[in-house]
Design a protein that fits this description.
The complex is a heterodimer.
Chain A (H helix, E strand, L loop, with lengths): L4 H8 L6 H24 L4 H11 L2 H8 L21 H17 L1 H30 L12 E5 L11 E5 L18 E2 L3 H10 L8 E3 L6 H4 L7 E3 L3
Parallel strand pairs in A: 4-5
Antiparallel strand pairs in A: 1-2, 1-3
Chain B lengths: L1 H4 L11 H10 L3 E6 L7 E6 L1 H25 L5
Antiparallel strand pairs in B: 1-2
Classes of the chains: A mainly alpha, B alpha+beta.
């Protein structure tokens, strides 16, 4: 059987086919010519005559002309990436102008990207503001690590020591007694105003004390002036 | 197949149908795939795609209309 491939490769070499695509086409056309050669042999032609007829029927110039109009014959090898260009403001301006043109050419995409960016930036800012205020920023006092919270703990529920043990406990961000075990929240009891005043009079540990009351904890008739000013009303 | 169906009136040689097949494939009207069978060389078979089927249907109607128009013209003198 004749070898058709050299002729076919010579024809296709003038076209810019991708190497893999050229190999496929050569294989397919070779099969066609082989089939045609076998067909002619089956009709009674000699092998040489069958090869001559098959070559006559195949016009390489016409094949080349017809294939040359296809998109796949305009393949270009992608060059390997060259060395990085040095930075210059000219190239930056060119890139910026290109980006602006590309964004203006696709307004819906640009709008969508802006909305997503705005929502993302807003959400991130909101979350960071909360984290900053709650966890990162120190308390607005000097030496916040010396601040402690005095609580009354019900020992029957979860506190240590005797019943209704009172004293400072490391609550809040400024808890100074980092080595102490925090009381069970269920064991926390409210502190009466008189207890607080007694603590304040008798304690010799803290430089100053203040009490915080919840909303409505002070009887209205006495809230106006009967309590000292260090009862801070917490309306939150 | 073309030669058989046309009763030998239409004969295509190698240089015509394959560029045509590749063009139809580029347009997405047909798709080719290599099929391998044991003991045989692999062969490439082409099948119509959905867009190709629509184009073929349209082309057939256009061709039928054209043939009918030519028939009416060429046999008009006998009408």
């Amino acid at each position: 059987m004749p070898d058709w491939k050299p002729d076919l490769r010579a024809r296709l070499a003038r076209l810019s086919l991708a190497p893999s695509r050229e190999a496929e086409i050569v294989e397919e056309l070779t099969q066609h010519l082989d089939d045609r050669w076998h067909e002619l042999i089956a009709r009674g032609e000699t092998p040489d005559e069958a090869a001559r007829i098959a070559r006559t029927e195949f016009s390489g110039a016409r094949l080349e002309a017809l294939l040359g109009t296809l998109r796949q014959t305009h393949w270009r090898e992608i060059p390997p990436p060259g060395p990085a260009r040095a930075f210059s403001f000219d190239s930056l301006l060119i890139d910026l102008r290109h980006a602006i043109r590309a964004l203006r050419a696709t307004p819906s995409f640009t709008l969508g990207a802006l909305v997503v960016l705005a929502l993302g930036t807003g959400a991130t800012t909101a979350i960071f503001s909360v984290v900053d205020a709650v966890a990162l920023r120190p308390l607005p006092f000097s030496d916040p690590n010396r601040i402690a919270v005095g609580v009354r703990v019900d020992a029957a529920v979860g506190g240590a020591g005797g019943p209704q043990r009172s004293g400072p406990a490391p609550l809040g961000r400024g808890g100074a007694m980092s080595g102490a075990k925090p009381p069970d929240p269920d064991a926390l009891m409210s502190v009466t105003a008189q207890d607080y005043l007694d603590w304040k009079d008798r304690q010799q540990v803290f430089e100053a004390m203040a009490a915080v009351t919840g909303t409505g904890d002070l009887p209205p008739a006495r809230a106006a002036g009967d309590y000292p000013v260090d009862f801070l009303h917490n309306n939150v | 197949l073309i030669e058989t169906r046309s009763g030998g009136r239409l004969v295509f040689h190698l240089d015509s149908p394959y560029p045509l097949l590749y063009r139809l494939e580029e347009r997405g009207w047909i798709t080719g795939a290599w099929v391998e069978k044991p003991g045989e060389r692999r062969r490439r078979f082409y099948r119509l795609t959905a867009p190709g089927r629509r184009v073929l249907s349209h082309q057939r109607r256009t061709w039928d209309d054209f043939v009918e128009a030519v028939r009416l013209v060429t046999r008009g003198e006998h009408a």
